Amino acid sequence: MPKKLNYLLSAKDLEIVEQAIRREKDPRVVKRATGIRLLHQGHSPQAVAEMLLVTEVTVYSWHHRWQADGLEGLRDKPRAGRPRYADEDYRRAIAEALERDPADYGYAFAIWTVERLREHLAQETRKVLSYNRLREVMSEMGYVYRRPTETLNHAQDVAAREQAQALIEELKKEPGQTISSSCLWTKQP
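The chain above was modelled as a monomer; its predicted structure follows.
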């Protein structure tokens, strides 16, 4: 006959689990800690599995990991496989490039586009990512593309601009002479 598992937690362990549920940033750890607390509260592994939408085997696995390593056992282990192509050095190169003006690198353009950045990083790091993968990596890093605001302030005649602004102010003061942006019709006084 199989040995019955003890799901009861000590007061200290229960506090650790509840702290993880409230403060842990990784949602997978929160879910696993919730499962451990539900087991402690007397729910069966089958009931916990149904509540958390996992298999019963998964709930048993969480319990065994908790027993072996505590809260650290509920965290994901490093996965085997090929290391990331866009490693920390590549990500650092992205951050450095975006913090500097393209002219600092000798480029004739003033704005980084994904394609320009991709070509620059290929020269700097000798790693070539696809356009879409570079966008994904930049998104993971928290970068968001936004269109630059295009102004012609640098090409404006300052005296003419001030004169036009003064004329606008005068027109605002005179009754019946207001210009409405929503209608071409005005009422005469």
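DSSP finds eight helices and no strands in the chain.
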